[in-house]
Design a protein that fits this description.
99 residues; mainly alpha; Helix Hairpins; 3 helices; elongated
Amino acid sequence: MLLMNLEFFFFFFFFFTGIMVFLFNFKYLLINLLSIEFMMLSLLMNLFMNLMIYNYEMFYMMIFLIFMVCEGALGWSLLISMVRILGNSNLQNLNLLKI
C-alpha cells in the first residue's frame, strides 16, 4: 500500500512540475508545448496504474493516447505556422496578430 501511495505521489509531482513550467516559463511556445506533453504523460502513467490496479480494460488508455497524439500534432502545426508567419516562436509576439 505504501508503494502504491508513493507511485501516485510521483505522478502528482510530475503533473505539478509540468503545471509550474507551463505557468512560469511562458517565453517560448515550444517549452509550453513540452510541458503540456509532460503533464499528459504523467496523466497517462496515472491512468495506466489505475487501470492495472483495478483490472479494467486498456481501451480507455488507447482513447487517451489518441487524444494525446492529436493534441501534440495540433501544437506542432501551430508552432510551425507561427514560425512561418512571425519568424520566431516567442509568445510575446502573439498580441501582434490582428487577424
